[in-house]
Amino acid sequence: QLPTGLYKKVLVILHDSILPYMNEPTLMIDFLTVAYGIGGAISLLALNGLFILIHQHNLEYPDFYKKLYSLLDPSIYHVKYRARFFHLADLFLSSSHLPAYLVAAFIKRLSRLALTAPPEALLMVIPFICNLFRRHPACKVLVHRPNGPEDLSEDPYIMEEKEPSESRALESSLWEIQSLQNHYHPDVAQAAAVLNQSLSEIEDNISGLLELSACELFDKEIKKKNADVPLEFEPVRGLFGKKNDIFTEHFTLD
Q1: Is residue 253 part of a domain?
Q2: What pLDDT is recorded for position 128?
Q3: What's the CA dihedral at 147, 149, 151, 154 to 10 degrees?
Q4: Would residue 37 count as lying in a domain?
Q5: Which of 80, 130, 206, 237 is the most exposed place for a label (fewest CB within 10 A)?
Q6: pTM over 0.85
Q7: What is the pLDDT of residue 114?
Q8: Which range marks the domain in which residue 170 is found?
Q9: Which residues in the chain show pLDDT less than 70?
């Protein structure tokens, strides 16, 4: 039972300042699995150490993807460790041997949470989702289902389901990304429109987007040279507005 602050300090440096110098890194299995089960930022930070134990020391974690799926909540696009999480999630979801239902569940949950995400997070997660489609073509039924029903009265995806295999994600569609094609930020709308076309085979490099911040987006926008935008369809003809404005009938300027 460690204080939350101490947990975070240890987990931030564990993967590069502690594990490489241990004779038996597997001694940290219990500590990391317990930390991974706590939830929130502590679980996100435990991913780095677990990644090393899984890939380099043959750690078997049967419910790993179920737990990873449960970490996807609305805060995932706002937390301080967002870049670290999505970098590792990209690695964990890179295997072509993952079942389609699992990847579809991640795609669907990320898309649903994207409806309330800030623009800087959307510009990262949309290419992330596109890369998942490139790796797992079986999931493309979420975008185009030739023999599907003509009308769906409701989304069959069960957002509250904790088990990815029971979420019915493969029966659903990505209406959330289509909604983002009308986003107020033009870069987000353009990124979401990519799914209207055939995806290229080459994956998007998201490494430069993981650390994207709102300040960087703002700086980029104010440096643009925009053309003059007309604010009135009908030119103003006087102090009080249009020609037929009631004020112009009763007031004049000398």
Answers
A1: no
A2: 92
A3: -120
A4: no
A5: 80
A6: no
A7: 92
A8: 99-223
A9: 147-152, 227, 229-245, 248, 252-254
Residue 189, pLDDT score: 92
* DSSP string covering 182-215: T-SSHHHHHHHGGGGSPPPSSPP--TTTTT--HH
Looking at residue 129, what is its pLDDT? 92
Q: What is the pLDDT of residues 207-240, one digit of tens each?
A: 878 878 888 888 888 887 776 766 666 666 656 6
Number of domains in the chain: 1
Residue 73 phi/psi, 5-degree rounding, is: -130, 175
Specify if 85 maps to a domain: no
Residue 63 forms part of a structural domain: no
Structure confidence at residue 182 (pLDDT): 92
Other C-beta atoms within 10 Å of 27: how many? Answer: 10
Size (the chain), residues: 254
Tokens (6 digits) for 210: 């993981």
Rounded to whole angstroms, the Cα distance separating 93 from 96 reads 8
CA distances from 159 to 31, 101, 105, 109, 113 (A): 30, 14, 9, 7, 10
